[in-house]
Amino acid sequence: MDFVPVLAKLLATPARRFTRCAIESAARDADQSGADVSAATRAGGSAEETRSSRLISAGLFTEDGAFETLPCWICDDIHDARVISIGSEDHLYCTRLGALERVGLRAQAWRLNLRGVAELLRSAFECRRERPRALGDDSACWMIGGRDWGASSFMLIALAPSLRSPEDAWRVNQLIGSLPRCDLGLLLSATTIGVQWPRASQWRPVMLTDAVVYSPDETLSVDWRQLELVFGDRFQLRGGRPLSFDVEKIRQAWIEACSAVERDAKPREVLTEYRRLYPDGPSPSIETIRKRVREFREDDAAA
Fold it and tell me: Rounded mean pLDDT of 205-216?
């Protein structure tokens, strides 16, 4: 199971406490792989139980008491029912039917372990400096760590579980302002929809699912190629200066891509063609391709 999209879905949820059923539901909705889950279930247990157990064993959750109410599953109405203790066992009490049903472990609360998430990300990015720590007292942002980048550049990585609004962006920007200066800052988040980030900032928000992948050896690793696409030319810092690319090579890739698809090629198709034509060197970012293609189209229209 690739738990990166599952983790992103849970991080984007305002709640930080979940029932096991909620964890299983998020895993089922977000997980697109089934082969490894099917193999695991042959040893016993449902696919959902296997998913949630693996998420918990990976250190992404810690026990956090029990819920006092749960969505009622006894009757057909949608309402919350109280969890009451009778002897040594917990039961769900439905006031609509006056009925009781044993809860078992379903009332157990699991809290998303942000420190554990930060440690996993620190290992994936191979950070050598700093240690994961919360910035501020509300867990709105976590410092993951720092690492050398290129010959003389320094990168910092932070985690903002979710950027949902301009207010969130302002708050997080204030928090990372206390960190040491860096040449490049990656701000990982479960969602960055609609967030306007200060253009002058060394930091850029990046979707967690665009930055990290779950490897076959069951570890997290960084998708540097995808970050290069998302982050732009500034991501290719070497000694603090971005790489430049031959405009004629990009133009040739655009011409070849248009010929291959028999229409005006999209920027991503041009990038794919560029990599085919020039496989031994670095590739321009999707932003650079988009800018150049726009210029090529304007030149053709003016001719």
Answer: 80
Structure tokens at 150: 């290129």
Return the closest-CA partner of residue 161 out of 208, 216, 122, 128: 208
Residue 266 burial (CB count, 10 A): 15
Q: Which amino acid is at 186?
A: L
3-state class (DSSP) for residue 230: helix
pLDDT at 244 over 60: no
Indicate if the pLDDT at residue 38 is higher than 60: no
Q: Is the distance from CB of 296 to CB of 288 less than 8 angstroms? A: no
Residues forming a β-bridge with 111 = 17, 62
Q: How many CB atoms are closer than 10 A to CB 49?
A: 14
Burial label for 281, CB within 10 Å (0-12, 13-18, 19+), is exposed
Strand pairing of 80-86 and 69-71?
antiparallel
Tell me the whole-structure pTM to 2 decimals: 0.64
CA of residue 282 relative to chain centroid, distance: 25
Which of 123, 189, 127, 133 shows the shortest CA–CA distance to 162?
A: 189
